[in-house]
Every structure is written in C-alpha cells, then in structure tokens.
Predict the structure.
Amino acid sequence: MKFENKTAVITGGSRGIGLAIATRLAKEGANIAILYVGDESEGENAKKELLQYGTKVEQYFCDVSDFEASKQVVDKIIEDFGGIEILVNNAGITRDKLVLNMDEKDFDAVINVNLKGTFNMIKHTYKHFMKKRYGRIVSTSSIVGIIGNKGQANYAASKAGIIGLTKSVARELAGRGVTVNAVAPGYIGTDMTNALSDKVKTEMQAQIPAKRIGDPEDVAKVVEFLCSDEAAYVTGEVIRVDGGLAI
Ligand code: NAP
C-alpha cells in the first residue's frame, strides 16, 4: 500500500473534497488526522467511515486561522501519531460579493481561513518535515486564483496567495526531500457549490469543456498522486482539476 506507516493531516477533512482525499489516502494505508471546525457529529461520521480501512483515524477541533490553536493541534497530532508525513491544506470558505458590497470582515475572514490558515499549518509542520527530510504538502487553491472571478475578489486573492506560498515553500524545502504542490479545482459538486442556484449551476456547467461538474473524487485522485512517492520529483506545481474550464 502506498501510504503504509504514513500519517496524513487533512484540514477540513470531514466532508466534501477533504473527505474524498482522506478516503483515498486511508484506502492506501495512511493514518488520518482530520481537522474540523463545524459540526462534531459530521467529523464522527467521517471518522467511522474512514476506520473501515483499518488505519488509525482521529479528528481534532481546530480553526486553522488561529495561529496558536493550529500549533497546538500539530504538536498533539505528532504526539498521538508519532509524526506527520503528509499535510493537505484543504480548509476553505467563501464570502462572495462584489467589491462594491464587500466589507472588511468579508475580506479578512476569507484571507484568514484560506491563506493564513494554510500558512499556519505549513509553518507548524515545517521544521518537523525538515528534520525528517521527508514530507508532502498539498494545498487547495482554485482556478479563480489563476483567472479571477467576479464577486470573489477575497476568495481569488486567497487562492492566488496559496499559489505564491506553495512555490516559495517548494523552493525552500526542495533540498530536504519535501515537496510542496497545489491543486486548483474548477467547479466541483460539494456543499460549497450546492449553495448556488440551479440557474448559476446550469450556466457554469455549459462553460466547462468536459461538460460536467467535477466530483470530489476527481480532485482527490490528483492529490493522492502528489502525496505519493511517485511524485517525488514534482514540486512547486499547480495542477488544475477543472475539466478544461480555465484553459
Ligand atoms: P466544503 O464542502 O464547504 O468544505 C470546506 C471544509 O473546510 C469543511 O470541511 C470545513 O470544516 C473546513 N473549514 C472551513 N473553515 C475552517 C476553519 N476555519 N478551520 C478548519 N477547517 C475549516 O468545501 P469543498 O468544496 O469541499 O472545498 C474544499 C477546498 O476546495 C476549499 O479550500 C475550497 O476553497 C476548494 N475549492 C473548492 C471548489 C469547489 O468547486 N467545490 C473549487 C475550487 C476550490 P467543517 O466541516 O468542520 O465545517
């Protein structure tokens, strides 16, 4: 199995794309630490689902935008699991509005969770990976971080920031056997996009060259590859998973 004796930390791993990633990694032998911030029972259900693959699974309450809390949780996971080999920064939120109506709180909230949260988790695992001379860091950007999107200036800025962060840390850690990559999903069917109206969904689908909305699995397969030893020579890369939407 690809990830036997490896521990993966997945932020926002109890639903959507994060759960699909956790499932693929667990099926390949990874021990899983899920970070959640919302409904504990959702995390419990995810844990039950993941335990069927026979690896160790724990869930931890942690708001990734909180620098101290994310440090404490990383230290606790290292203590509980004996180490971390894989970090998947998947937690993300939206507060969509035109800049005209976007207040400072909407901007800060999205930057704090999506970009600062990714920084916090990388910062607190950085030395651990350096010492191990091994690590896989994969962060979830978005195609809107590449091409922008009306009504998502805060979100697009946070996702573009993840790309800059990824490429910089990739350069810093490449000599230590640590790869740092990002995926940039297009339109994927999850709670985040289910909130859109049917009209918007139909319009978006029509723009996708592949003519279908992506599944969380489509993203998880690419993340699984980036976390594997097969991807040892891939770093600082951003892989679009968008059915061609941002070609
Ligand atoms: P989702 O279903 O809304 O899930 C978001 C996840 O983020 C949840 O598990 C949530 O935890 C977690 N989260 C939110 N705020 C957090 C915080 N402060 N601390 C820790 N965890 C937090 O969204 P999704 O569609 O699966 O999205 C996953 C990632 O892919 C996000 O980064 C998103 O921006 C990105 N993405 C999604 C799409 C898409 O079309 N769906 C496209 C491009 C990129 P709880 O479950 O505890 O609430």
Summary: The chain has one domain: 7-241. The first helix runs from residue 16 to 27. Residues 11-12, 14-18, 35-38, 42, 63-65, 90-93, 113, 117, 140, 142, 185, 187-188, 190-193 surround NAP (CB under 6 Å).
